[in-house]
Amino acid sequence: xxxxxxxxxxxxxxxxxxxxxxxxxxxxxxxxxxxxxxxxxxxxxxxxxxxxxxxxxxxxxxxxxxxxxxxxxxxxxxxxx
Length: 81
Known about the structure:
By secondary structure, the chain is mainly alpha-helical. The protein has helices at about 1-15, 20-30, 30-40, 60; strands at about 65, 80.
């Protein structure tokens, strides 16, 4: 299904499908600066979030900000790290 979505998007945007060779060529042409530039564009400090799902050790809980009041230990808690 993913592949079909990629083909459909490619047809809509470019009116043609890129070959595997074209995609590999472009990916291999990326530089560290290209990746840093894109990361800086996408990863804005004010918009970063992290969700941790699962049990945390006492050590892991230190430094985390609870997202709601803590409940008894047998329940899972949510934290903002």
